[in-house]
Design goal:
The chain is of the alpha/beta class. It has helices spanning 13-24, 31-38, 44-55, 61-72, 90-98, 113-121, 161-175, 178-183, 198-209, and strands at 2-7, 27-30, 81-84, 105-110, 123-125, 132-134, 188-193. A hairpin with a 6-residue loop joins strand 5 and strand 6 (132-134). Helix 1 (13-24) crosses helix 9. It is globular. It binds BIS(adenosine)-5'-pentaphosphate. BIS(adenosine)-5'-pentaphosphate (AP5) binds at residues 7, 9-15, 31-32, 35, 52-53, 56-59, 64, 85-86, 88, 92, 119, 122-123, 132-134, 137-138, 158, 167, 194, 196-198, 201.
Length: 210
């Protein structure tokens, strides 16, 4: 099963991808998490990536497409994968076709812009794994600690109001137009109301997959 999860920043893609990964035993491939990991490095590439992510802009296609294609060629993707955060524009969507990567299902998590700020301001993540929590809506078992490792949770550097504004602008300009690319393609496309609680959204996704 090869799934693409689409949606506005903060729609819940990472949260649902984490759950689906466990439910279906498929790889969870988050380009945001990959880029946050790369940006920890002091290398030129790491610094370059960090400057794009921290300003809310998309990392250039030539960097991210190669990273993604390499990532999904790893063994843990043989059973299938769920893409969270890729593709982000039409060029990236076409690159999957060009690389001969077929997709079974596209799921679009729909949410209103008004809900985004509340979700992002309460978000806390485990930096090493990318696991995402929310102080109110999806709290960890122990306050401020990752459920699996017990390590400290942090706030993302791009979850600041001015950067969120930029990310939303990029989403409307570059990512939303890509929805039509998939709607017009011979591929199963589902739209889900992602404004409901985490569990309700998961149930809808699993119903589609099953
Ligand atoms: P990325 O990490 O992909 O960020 P994003 O797409 O902006 O999405 P988010 O991670 O912010 O949100 P999400 O939908 O995963 O929501 P989450 O589940 O965390 O990308 C970051 C940056 O990397 C980009 O800006 C760009 O610079 C770069 N990048 C990444 N991919 C790229 C690409 N392909 N090309 C170029 N550049 C790229 O949920 C949000 C919060 O809400 C959490 O606290 C969660 O607990 C809570 N929550 C989730 N679901 C619910 C619910 N149903 N009810 C209540 N709360 C909920």
């Amino acid at each position: 099963m090869r799934i693409i999860l689409l949606g506005m920043p903060g729609a819940g893609k990472g949260t649902q991808a984490q759950i689906i990964e466990e439910e279906l035993a498929i790889a969870n491939v988050s380009t945001g998490a990959i880029l946050r990991e790369v940006s920890k490095s002091k290398s030129d590439l790491g610094q370059k990536v960090q400057s794009y992510v921290n300003s809310g802009q998309l990392v250039p296609d030539e960097i991210i497409i190669e990273m993604l294609v390499q990532r999904i060629s790893k063994d843990d993707c043989n059973n299938g994968f769920i893409l969270d955060g890729f593709p982000r524009n039409i060029e990236q969507a076409k690159s999957l076709d060009q690389a001969g990567v077929s997709i079974d299902l596209v799921i679009y998590l729909k949410i209103l812009e008004e809900q985004i700020i509340e979700r992002m301001s309460g978000r806390r993540i485990h930096l090493a794994s990318g696991r995402s929590y929310h102080t109110t809506f999806n709290p960890p078992k122990v306050d401020g600690k990752d459920d699996l490792t017990g390590e400290e949770l942090v706030q993302r550097s791009d979850d600041k109001p001015d950067v969120i504004k930029k990310r939303l602008e990029v989403y409307f300009n570059e990512t939303e137009p890509m929805l039509d690319f998939y709607k017009n393609k011979d591929i199963q496309f589902y739209e889900i109301d992602a404004s409901e609680p985490v569990k309700a959204v998961t149930e809808k996704i699993l119903k589609i997959i099953n």
